[in-house]
Amino acid sequence: MQKTKVFIDCDPGIDDALALLLALCHPNVSVVGIGVNCGNVPVELGVKNVLHILELTGQVHVPVYAGAEKPLCRDFVSAQDTHGENGLGEIIFAQPIIKPQKMSASEAILLHAKADTTLLTLAPLTNVALALQKNPKVLQAYGKVISMGGAFRTHGNCSQVAEYNYWCDPEAAEYVYANAGRVIDMVGLDVTRAFVLHATARAQLKNINNPLAQFAYDITGFYQDFHQKQENLNGCVLNDVLAVGYLIDETLCAGFLSHVDIVCQGKAMGQSLVDVGGFYKQSPNALILQEVRVDDAMQLFWQTCFNTDYKMLKI
Ligand code: RIB
Ligand code: CA
Fold this sequence. Notes:
Blueprint: E1 4-10, H1 14-25, E2 29-36, H2 43-57, E3 64-66, H3 80-83, H4 105-111, E4 117-121, H5 126-134, H6 138-141, E5 144-148, H7 164-168, H8 170-179, E6 184-187, H9 189-192, E7 196-198, H10 199-205, H11 211-231, E8 235-237, H12 239-248, E9 253-258, E10 260-262, E11 272-274, E12 286-292, H13 294-306
Parallel strand pairs: 1-2, 1-4, 2-3, 4-5, 5-6, 6-12
Antiparallel strand pairs: 7-8, 9-12, 10-11
The structure holds alpha-D-ribofuranose (RIB) and calcium ion.
Calcium ion binds at residues 10-11, 13, 16, 39-40, 122-123, 240.
């Protein structure tokens, strides 16, 4: 079976880290490169975390590219309150041995733009916007573009209406959706909010004799505590893991085509405005995912990364 080739732009971050595990471990996925954007943590910490994950999974050949240190035109606001100061739940790891490439993430997005490759974004879209400014056709050169971000019918996680990736750099998100020249599959909070690692499931990770299960257990403690305090959720939302699951099996989610604008000013800054009524008669630039097969997606994650039948767990 032909492997799915993917370039991932991320900001690890705990859910990014678990998403990278899924992409790096799945037999039908070939990660051609990993870009890092400022986001959950400053870019240098994100790069360090990616390098650690590559060493943990043995995939030390995958090239890593450092990207934007700040949004296009506003101050950088991290999400270290959610992911920990170091981005991996305050768990301390040895300094990675492997090093990133000299090329920037935006240049790498240009380099890897091929019809047999998917661009998957799990972070603010600064690197992608910079690549698009250099080559207006770059996103059309990818076979598919999938972006974890946005929210349509559900509330935001940074304000009443805004999701973090598009809120952190709204100008970048607006520029990407306005100039992509293609449909972007938007894996928003409408579907990711349902994709929860419940506390009872997380507790069972501890009993799995597998270094990746131990890693997942260790780094999600801080994240689960944050969700408990912030949303009274007895678990944690694995936004980016679902985006990788959708990369692997697009039948896991379903949605509708529409036009999306990103709000850049005022109280609704970062909101993904979905013109579901077609008021402005603009051609669709996004596939807005609304339904998700949660248990099947979680089974894919657990089987691939932890060699464990999720549906057999006592949740
Ligand atoms: O809003 C959730 C998204 O923002 C996820 O990608 C998370 O890692 C953060 O980047
Ligand atoms: Ca992310």
